[in-house]
Amino acid sequence: MDEYAEPAREPADALDPRAELSEFLRTRRARLKPEDVGLRSFGRYRRVPGLRREELAQLAGVSVAYYTRLEQGNGRHVSPEVLDAIARALRLSDAEHAHLTHLAKPRQHKKKPAVRTQQVRGPLRTLLDTMDGVPAILVGRRSDILVWNRMAAAVFGDWAELPAHERNWARLVFLRPEYRDLFVDWGRKANDVVSQLRMDAGSHPDDPQLSALVGELSVKSEEFRRLWATHDVKEKCHAIQRLHHPLVGELDLRLESFHQADAHERMLVTYHAEPGSPSAEALRLLASWGTDATRAGAGMPPARTT
Fold first, then answer.
1. How many CB atoms lie within 10 A of CB 141?
2. Which residues form the HTH cro/C1-type domain (predicted)?
3. C-alpha span between 125 and 105 (Å, rounded)
């Protein structure tokens, strides 16, 4: 597949790390009730959903004023130990804990050119091509789809037919109706995509391409706006992906993902079926049909023949 080159785009305002930190802490605090963390709840009516700032500060062992400053987005001088204590008090997952750390103490990034190529090593491309019966995709920053093999095209569509900037999971899931039909649980897939974008935003708040993507999706998709506002983050390593393929019907595939050792922000994502299952037979049929099967949902064009 052709190397993914980021197209030139209009400059976009960077995401505000202070606002992101503030909203993330507020939404995590709002989802907890006093009884969830061993505190007594006095009275039926509370002015705020979830824990109060005072209660959270008590659980974390910090002053209310200190926590209030942090929730207002001032995390410049917060120590790792305090962040750990707040993460425990908020019952954060490992992914959420990492996201909190990125927001509170953002890394300094050198300015990058507006247009750049996400290089993919030749041996990695060869590896994907040799995985004949297993759909495999290399996913980069911002959920960009960088490289894929023939089986991935047979299952998800011929992305070579799309402009480079549209080869992106968020764009496909939220802006292309055929992917609503392809994913049996579209809502779960949409939430996974947004949660991963939130992780990227925490690590790279100054990424203009990410800001532009979030802005465009927020304008064009009400579902995206709603999910983005939840500030949920998670890193998906494995799951069952249920699909309704237009040619072979139902597919139950096991998703496994692996970070690239020399480029941790990229993931190799594979999909395999249980041996001897109907889904395994369906994948075998797709492999035998070759380029005739390279479409994802009704309306996706067939793959170009070579």
1. 18
2. 44-97
3. 35
- Alpha-carbon Rg for the chain, nearest whole angstrom, is 22
By C-alpha distance, which of 43, 224, 58, 255 is closest to 139? 255
Taking only the tens of pLDDT, the chain with its 306 residues reads: 444 444 434 444 567 888 999 999 999 999 988 888 877 765 556 666 788 999 999 999 999 999 999 999 887 788 999 999 999 999 999 999 999 998 988 765 555 444 455 667 778 888 888 888 899 999 998 999 999 999 999 999 889 989 999 999 999 999 999 999 999 999 999 999 999 999 988 888 888 999 999 999 999 999 999 999 999 998 778 889 999 999 999 999 999 999 877 666 788 999 999 999 999 999 999 998 865 666 544 345 443 333
Report the 10 Å Cβ neighbour count for 160.
14
With beta carbons less than 8 A apart as the criterion, state whether 135 and 278 touch. Answer: no
Closest to 214 measured CA to CA, from 203, 232, 200, 234: 200
9 occurs within a structural domain:
no
Cα–Cα distance for residue pair 78/69, rounded to 1 Å: 10
- Can you give the CATH number for the domain in which 163 is found? 3.30.450.180
CA–CA separation, 86 and 71 (whole Å): 11
d(CA 150, CA 174): 24
What is the domain extent for residue 219? 122-293
